[in-house]
């Protein structure tokens, strides 16, 4: 099929934007590694990083693709900026990276959503073996199935089932993106990283889901940048018990605001704040859950086959009511599906052509 001049021009502009953004990120992180790292920690180093914070905040605006906007906002505007904020005070993975490793590892840790094994926070509990192991190939197959359903047969499927497909696709896409980032870092710089998630569909409580299973790269970053400082600052003011609860709520509020920012960039419309309320609701529920667990201690606990479905069901139900509506209302889901679906169709056609070509030699 012959491409129109407009499509070709748009593709060229997208490629130029991608090159510009990648070079900007690399040059900025070189500045951080060679110059900002030499400035005393604290306010002086933070001031030296202000131009980088600004640049990383506007980089998504160079794209017209909804998928690339969301990806850049997540990787760079959110995670990289938060890591650099920690770096300003000699904390987090980037500070550790400047002390004993090379520039490529520093850039990888900053620009990609990774948790290096030597830098990740150690849990008091051993990392459990996966009960339902999903490798990358299986996740690609599942994404292909959900894309086929939502991209080609959406009009024939009940809206609630579409939302369920979106839930699965969100988990799988985040897992795949972070797994691919991890593979790139491992191949190029030999960096061993932690898995992006730990079977969130097996969560037995909201605390378990958000703290130990879902999108652990974000969890680790928010723990260091929001939860720990807020808890430390409030401990002497309201006591350790309430400081912990307020820190939990503050972490969820910041997460909600960053999700609003992602979809503000994608949609270009003022936020409705439903997404923030989704995270506020979950933050409040986690606070209550912590209080209940402390009150009953180990004297009473729901069996896993009851608490598991209740937990996952609550996450999905509240996502249906608060998380997905602003995405669907403004057509962000359609834009992202169109872009990913077009790539999927192209790849599928190429695979079929290859199979037909190989069939001629039988």
TrEMBL record:
Single GO MF descriptor: O-acyltransferase activity
Subcellular location: Membrane
Keyword Transmembrane attributed: yes
Membrane topology recorded in Swiss-Prot or TrEMBL: Multi-pass membrane protein
The keyword Plastid appears for this protein: no
Ranges annotated as spanning the membrane: 21-40, 52-80, 92-112, 132-151, 163-189, 242-265, 277-296, 302-324
Entry keywords, A to Z: Acyltransferase, Lipid metabolism, Membrane, Transferase, Transmembrane, Transmembrane helix
Pathway(s) the chain acts in: Secondary metabolite biosynthesis
Pfam family, one: MBOAT_2
Predominant subcellular localization, coarse grouping: membrane
GO biological process entries: lipid metabolic process
GO cellular component: membrane
Stretches assigned to the Wax synthase domain: 196-280
Entries under InterPro entries matching the protein: Wax_synthase, Wax_synthase_dom, Wax_synthase_Magnoliopsida
Source organism superkingdom: Eukaryota
Family the UniProt entry places it in: Belongs to the wax synthase family.
Protein name: Long-chain-alcohol o-fatty-acyltransferase 3
